[in-house]
Structures are given as C-alpha cells and as structure tokens.
User: Fold this.
Amino acid sequence: MFGTPMLRSNRSRILFIQPWNYHDEDVCDYNAEHAWRNAPYNIVLLATICNKAGHEARILDLQRNLVVRLGQVNKCLVDIDEAIENFHPDIVAVSFFSIHYFEAKQVVERVRQASERLRISPILIAGGIHATVSPETCVNELGFDYAFVGEADMAIIDIVEGKSPLTIQGMLSRSSLALCRGTKGEQIRELDTLPFPDWSLIDHKFYSQPSYARLVFAKTGSLDMIMGRGCVYECSFCAYNALSAVRFYSAEYLVDQMEYVHRTYGVNGIYFTDSTVGNNRKVLRLMCEIILRRGLEKKLIWLANIRPNQINEEQLKLMWRAGCRFLLYGFESNSQRILDIMKKKCSVEANERCAELHTKLMFPYCASMLLGYPGETEIDLNLSMDFLRKHKPPSIGINWYVPLPGSPDYDKLRSEGVINTDDPEEWRRIGEVNNARCYADIAAPRFRQMFDDACRLAYSDIPNQVGEHWRSAVSQMLP
Ligand code: B12
Ligand code: SF4
Assistant:
C-alpha cells in the first residue's frame, strides 16, 4: 500500500477534499444566519491554478456538505464514494488543520475503499497546516502516500504534471521523512502572479450568504480574501510562522480582486482572513486610496484582523472612509507580564490607546482575549477583565488557551512532557475551545469559574450596557 505511487499521465484529474468539522456532526438545526464559516480559500486557489494549467481539478467540500446534510457523516462518506466513482481522480489532495486528524483518517480510508472497488489507485496527498507541522502522522498514521510541507502554489503544477513525487521539494513519503526533514515547498515570490480564486469550484453561495455571525455582514453577502502570507511577529502561541515567509500582494491586485469578487459573485462584503492586515501599512494605505479613487467603497464593505500597535487615528479614518466597517484585535491580555511571556511585542499602552481611539471614532471592533496562558495568575486575568469593563468593546471574544501544533509553545510543552505525544486525541483538543486543559498558574476549578465569569461579562453584562449604542452606529454605516 505504501510503495511509491506514480502518476499515469501528464494531464491529470485532481480531487481536492476538505474534511468536515466534527463540531457539525449530528447538528440538525442548520441555521446559516448564525454561523461564521469560511470558504476553503487554499484549495480553491490550488484548484484554480491546476485548471488554468489545463488540468482538471474538482473540490469535494465536506465542511459544507455535512452542514447541508444536517450533521449526517454517513452521507458525507457516500459523497466521497460518488466523487471517486464519477471522477476517477489520479490524485486526491486533502487539506486540513490538526483538529481534523480523525476526519482526515476517515476520508483516506473511504477514498481507498472506493478506489479499490473501481480498481484505480489515486495517489493520496496531505497538505495544509497539519501536514506542515506533522508530516509523519500523515504518512504513518493517517494512511496518506505523501505529506506536503509548506505552500504548494508552485509545487502543485509539478504534482499534477506527473513529476516523480519525491523529486518535488516539500513532498515527503514514509521512506523520505528522515532524509528530508526540514524541507518545505518552494514559496512563490510574487503573489501577484497568482490567479484570483475561482469560487465557482465550490458552493460559494453557502459561504457568502449574509450572516449575523460574520458581524457587519448581517445584511451583505461576503467572501474571503488574503492580503499576504506570513507574519513579521513571532508570538509564542501562534503556529503561523511554521508555514510561510512574509510576502504581500500589491494594493492594485487586492483592489482588482475585490472588484472581481463583487462583480462575479455578487457579494458586497470582503473579510480579510490574514491574522493581521497591519504588517505592511504601505500596502494597506494604498489599497484604501485606490478603493476611494475607484469608488468601490460605495459597493463593498470589508473587515479585517489587525494588531493594537498597528493603528493610528489617521489610518483608522482612512480605512473607515474606504469601507472598512469592523476590525478584530487579538488583545489577548492586558497584563504586560503576560504579553511579554507571549512575545507579543505589544504594550498595554497600545491596547488602551487602540480601544480609546475606536470609541472616540465610533469605529466598531472586537476585543479577542486569550485566557489561561501558561504562567497567567488571577492578578493577570483580572487585569484583562478590567480592560473589558473599562472600554466596553462592542464585540468581545473570550478564548481558552490551547497550545497549537506548529507554535513555539507547543514544542516547549511537548519537550517538557506536558503534552502526551502519543495520544492522537491531542490533535483534537486544539478545537476543544472552552473545554480544554488549564495551563495557567491557577487551579483548574478556579480557572473554570473565572473563565465562566469572563464569558458572562463579555457575552451578557457588557453587551447589555452598550449594545444599542454601537449597533446603531454600525447599521447607519452599511451601504
Ligand atoms: C483563515 C483562518 C481560519 C478560518 C478558516 C480558514 C479555512 N477555511 O481554511 C477560521 C476563522 C474559520 C479558522 C478557524 C480555525 N483555525 Co484558523 N486560521 C486561519 C489563518 C489565519 C489563515 C489560513 C489561510 O487562509 N491561509 C492562506 C492560504 C493560502 O494558505 P494555507 O491555508 O496554508 O494553504 C497553503 C499551504 O498550506 C498548502 N496547502 C493547503 N492545503 C493543501 C493541500 C495539499 C494536498 C497540498 C499539496 C498543499 C496544500 O498550499 C496552500 C497554498 O500555498 C491561519 C493562519 C495563517 N495565516 O495561515 C489560521 C490557522 C490555520 N488556524 C488555526 C486554528 C488552530 C484554527 C481553529 C482550530 C481555532 C479554534 N481553536 O477554533 C479553527 C478551526 C477551523 C475549523 N475548520 O474547524 C491554526 C492551525 C494550527 C494547526 N496546527 O492546526 C492557524 C495556523 C492559526 C494560528 N494562529 O496558529 N481559521
Ligand atoms: S498571533 Fe498574529 S501577530 Fe502574532 S505571530 Fe501569529 S499571526 Fe503574527
């Protein structure tokens, strides 16, 4: 089963699969309006690249399928059978995060069974963040032929053109793992040379429909975009730097893509999924200026994530004029001691300034806090809660700290034996937000209590005090 599978021809059929989210299993009251869902940007982009090069790429989006099939996993498994039977792919490329460990395993098993019945043997490749941080689990435990490490915008063409897999940079098999540890797919230098994602490859309306959960997109439909790759910071809890070096699209490319998404898919909203759009403020400023020059702000609103230390009043005003209607900040903590341990390179003064500025400008924002960080004490946690009580942000996210595979924290906790490396459930726990282990310097029952108090404060007490005030500010600004 684990030989060195090769491709049959130079023109390939490649089936990209996104596994389902286990949170959606058995959930039968599908309510699109209240769900925050993101379309699989990565495989839509990779499939677009393959099709543009003359190959045939399709996408089986099981995240969407499980939701519309009201949580019935067995129906998704039948979808896999049908996709294999109808398409006879040469390659099956599965993209997943670490939390999808068990779903990816089921996908592989089902693809193999369906293929055996048809007497075909597509090669199975794992890609995405989990394959990047743990290629060995992909080939040793999940049953993939290959694990691809890093970005595949360049390599995907070699893969579909039938180049011998083990000569492709970043592609690892069981046998090459030890030899090639540390290699990564070649990264594309000029992001502007990439095509715009062809959203018609998936049920884009499922993702773009208006959604209250997607904040200011309660009235407008929205799709996702990315401003660049990589991050200039190195926060200890973040897995992002495992993937990418820092690069950005040009401002012209981004505005062209916004226009394309609006024109082609009829959406009036864009969510920039980058962890922060503030890493290149020159591009951000230029993008706003071009939007204004083209009058696009009359047709589109957008929201984005950014760091508190990456904004100032003039920039916020410009972003607002250019159609930005919401910003999400990972403040994480308002204890300088914890921010320093996190290597956040952000000060409590920047946090305070940021919240004050948003209130002054009535620019809606979300304050996302990370509770339970290793080393956090009751005093630290209370400083974060005081921050929320003081500024009363119009939207608040309370998150339970979980070490992410690929982050410096995760490696440290593994080396200290805190995380059991042999237990596959560990991958799953990444998604168990609000119900995970307590890593803080606070006894677990006490932390649970403080976490619940924080949730009450964030989701009931503060919104009851400020809801209407901010809500009317947002609704007046929608196009
Ligand atoms: C947008 C985003 C989301 C979106 C959804 C994204 C989606 N549908 O794909 C939302 C907000 C829903 C989300 C949620 C979560 N996310 Co998130 N998310 C991101 C973020 C910020 C951007 C991802 C992205 O679009 N990148 C751009 C694309 C182009 O890059 P890419 O996906 O890496 O794809 C490239 C390569 O990986 C490769 N590739 C990808 N697939 C394949 C497949 C094959 C076969 C091949 C060969 C190559 C290949 O080629 C691609 C192009 O170069 C990343 C951090 C980051 N900046 O990457 C975190 C990140 C991926 N998320 C993370 C996590 C932990 C989560 C959550 C589990 C958080 C939580 N606890 O709830 C949830 C779970 C989501 C779920 N599915 O259930 C972690 C993952 C860590 C890990 N080891 O798994 C990351 C790295 C963030 C971090 N701070 O560390 N997330
Ligand atoms: S948390 Fe955000 S700012 Fe920090 S390294 Fe990750 S992407 Fe960069």
